[in-house]
Amino acid sequence: MNMNWSRKWINPVLDKEFRLRMRSPKSMLSVLLYVLALGAVAMAFIYMFLYLGRGGQQRFDPSMSRTMFYVLSFAQLVLIAFMAPALTAGVISSEREKQTLSMLLTTQQSSATIVLSKLVSSLSFMTLIVLATLPVYSIVFLYGGISPKQLVSVFLFYLFVMLLLGSLGILFSTLFKRTIVAIIVTYGVGLIIFLVTGLLFLFFMGIVQRNYMMSGATTPPVNSWVGYILGLNPGGALISIFEPTFSKEVFSLMSGGSTINSKAPIQLWLEFVLVYSVVIVIALWIAIRRIRPVKRGRLGRQKTKKPVETLGE
Amino acid sequence: MIEIRNLSKKYGTFEALKNISLDIEKGTVFGFVGPNGAGKSTTMSILATLALPTSGTAKVGGYEVTDYPKEVRKRIGYMPDFFGVYDQLKATEYLHFYGASYGIPRPDREKLIPQLLDLVNLSNKADSYVDSLSRGMKQRLCLARCLVHDPDVLILDEPASGLDPRARIEMREILKELKLMGKTIIISSHILPELAEMVDEIGVIEHGEMIAQGKVADIQNRLRVKKVIHIRTLDQENSLAEKLRDEPFVSSVLSDNTGVHVHYSGDDAQQSELLRQVISWGIPVVSFQEAQSNLEDVFLEITKGGPSA
Q1: Model ipTM?
Q2: Could you list the residue ranges that cross the membrane (chain B) (predicted)?
Q3: Which of A77, A313, B230, B256 sits at 20 to 30 Å (Cα–Cα) from A117?
């Protein structure tokens, strides 16, 4: 065949996943709905600021388009948070429910190939959806204010968030027999990552600030540990990509305080990537181990001998 | 080809398999028989590397299933009792997927798949989507799937379940062909006459225990179920059954609405004496005939008294 590269890179599981995914009309519909949703956000933003703000006298200038970029990027992040669990938390358990998993597991495909191929296939589809929203972003580029580098970083960040939610989705899909349970648990963990970390940050920030006020100190302590909590939140990490000074502000206790000389111990997005990379690796490792029955401990039990091959029917 | 030693499997406190041992020679068709939930599927999924035994060993082609699962998978074709198909794939694509998953290169698959479809009589459905196939066709497609990597052993869990009589006959014909190809086949069923004419050996399993195992004829002999006499009367089955129990050479008596079934070990002379005896009791006999004992009788005979063998 002329497609040598595909034989090298696309294993049978991936090939099947791609085929099934792209054949289902549901997939096309989800691309459509997703782009419509993000387009609606963009239109609503333009309408609100251009026609409602300041009695309709507002100009759409580069700073406005930058704000719009932020709004779009956050909307996209929320959409991803909703989409990723739905697309990944069923990949293993639905095969179990449709009773195709046992036959897949008796083939020569390794557990890692099966799990990773399913992850890659879902990620590819999500990437397709996210890339399909680029035309919406073109409105931003029409007015300037955003560098292509920022756009690329934000999209790479999305890819990472999808990888994170996707790995968790596949983990729960492997651990739980039923898809619906896997999806709910994945959304639950997603909620912790997206919402609870943010709330915890605000909560502890409040306490630390209050203690500081009570103590009556005149110089704020440089760099509070509370900032690390926001680094676990995708929203915080995303803002730190937009505004490199944001991390510094988060770690210093009082916004606008004497923070000129202080430096952020770590950029929030970098912390986010480092911490959750570990989560991703652990999630995938467990999923790969648990998709097939876990071998009992070898202690006190010797491996049986491999038979001597005697060919001769 | 298959060697099972003291295999046990527990799910919590429930013992699905208790110390099962089994040897199946190459080329043998082994019928796994037992009521639902007896442990047939558990044994088969252990052999298919899908479940781990709690203790004991199982070897396929000399390879222990938990130590060399990959080698074992190469050698077996497994058909689960319940299975699904990928709806959005065509029959050929379905086989291509599994073929590729077993590492068969595409040019080889191109040649192989039409042969497989031909074997299971689905050549005319090659380009149909799998979900448009009937249940029997899906079952045959799944059987073809088991064969893509030319395994030595076929593990077929209830391959005929849920099929209409015609589809069953088709399935049986294919299995006969596979037997001729020299495959070692383990086939489970709770419908015994299905298996009767094609299995070489049977193993009867109940409550996780192998209660009888061996060549069909041996088991019949061992249980001395020489013949079954079927007697139909004018509505006096119960009193006849009662009286027959004390007769010599009668090992057991079953009566149902079709008549009285007597497991009898006497010879022809003694049998004619029995008929005279029955008539002398004044029972209106409508028919008195000898039924060839088949697997089903063996099965009933073995299982009615619980584990004994």
Answers
A1: 0.82
A2: none
A3: A77
